[in-house]
Amino acid sequence: MMGSQQNVLNQLVSFILGASVGAVLIVFFLSAGQGQWSTGLSSWANESKVTAPAAAAAAAAKEANVTNSAAHVEEKAGQAAAPEQDLELEKLLAAVADEHRNIIMTSVNEAWAAEGSLLDLFLEGFRAGKGIARFVDHLLIVALDDGALNRCRAVHPHCYRLTVAGRNLSSEKVFMSEDYLDLVWSKVKLQQRILELGYNFLFTDVDILWFRDPFERMSMAAHMVTSSDFYLGGAYNTANFPNTGFLYVRSSRRAVAAMEAWRAARAAYPGRHEQQVLNEIKRELVAKRGVRIQFLDTAHNGGFCSNTRDFATLYTMHANCCVGLGAKLHDLRNLLAEWRAYRQLPGGDPRRRGPVRWKVPGICIH
Where are its TM segments located (predicted)? Predict the structure, then answer.
């Protein structure tokens, strides 16, 4: 549970003010690999810090393989935007997915993929993290423009070019503009297609630093696992506010139907982005469609909107509630530098037991 109700209110006000101004680019990553992840789906039920009912976990495990059949893939094949692009996607997914058909996904445009920008910082975070460097080998980067694709190919072996019809996505997009909305909803469409092809995805924004293995915080019983802008307590409590910048979904017919319902709900909530719409329909997905949604505690998967400022418990940090590329880079670079200093403390140093707080003020982080 987050602190007092007053603290939650203050954070919520900060979030609304931060989200209402300026320009923001949404980017998303696709990744996976041929190697075995040390924490995979088969081991989540034992390793997760979130306890799940045995019956739910068993049902989830049974459901996980529903979409792996060729018949289901053929049934959904006609929904791909372009046959050539779909074929390329299938080949890449097959090449990078792990033995449990897990992938990690994100995406960048030219501005965020440029040398010294967020993509470089994102990759650097894996090398500096605790036992997570292996995830880079499983990373598939989705490029939104040719500049991003060229830069991706210069620094990483697995890149995929996504096109959004009639849109130039190479520059930063004004928050809630038509280009912005088409961009974020194209992400959901791609995620649905990945599920239809029988793969599980973990989507992570590129402005998220990873410090520890986030799979340790996830429950195998969940169909969908999302980070939280504000965590009010209870891993399955739909009063929590989702942040789809960090989202895991396990492939199943139920999950595909949930994604279809999510995309269809855009018409009922015109002018809203995908995260806002998910927040509106989350209770319906749970009550009417039987979707189990786990919300990650901000004590472990934090963001600039809401965080514990404690390296001893932190798994990921998202530069949300932060307007502008320069501001994000400034605060995330400082945060990574302080993480490195924390990691260099001797093992017996009492400062490693926490709370381990970073310096303030930043441009966005508090």
Answer: 12-32
Q: Which of 307, 177, 203, 330 is nearest to 259 (CA)?
A: 203
Q: Does residue 242 have a cis bond before it (omega within 30 degrees)?
A: no
Q: 311-359 pLDDT, tens per residue?
A: 889 999 999 989 899 999 999 999 999 999 999 988 777 777 767 777 7
pLDDT at 139 over 60: yes
Quick check: 319 and 364 in contact, CB under 8 A?
Answer: yes
What band does 165 get if pLDDT is binned at 50, 70 and 90? low
Instruction: Determine the Cα–Cα distance for residues 98 and 146; give it in Å rounded to an integer.
Output: 28
Mean pLDDT for the stretch of residues 261-274 = 94
**Residue 317, phi then psi, degrees to nearest 5:** -135, 125
Q: What is the DSSP string of 254-314?
A: HHHHHHHHHHHGGGGSTT--HHHHHHHHHHHHHHHH---EEEPPTTTEEETTB----TTT-
Q: Which two tokens stand for residue 134?
A: 């292996």
> Exposed/middle/buried for 235, CB within 10 Å: 0-12, 13-18, 19+?
buried
> Maximum distance among all alpha carbons in the chain?
58
* pLDDT band at residue 1 using 50, 70 and 90 as cut-offs: very low
* Residues whose CB falls within 8 Å of the CB of residue 157, separated by 6 or more in sequence, listed in order: none
User: How far apart, in whole angstroms, are the C-alpha atoms of residue 200 and residue 210?
Assistant: 19
pTM, rounded to two decimals: 0.78
Q: Which residue has the higher pLDDT, 223 or 52?
A: 223
Higher-confidence residue of 207 and 69: namely 207
Residue 125 identity: G
Four-residue CA torsion sign, 313, 209, 262, 77: negative
> What burial class does residue 224 get, using C-beta atoms within 10 Å of its C-beta: 0-12 exposed, 13-18 middle, 19+ buried?
buried
DSSP SS3 for 204: strand
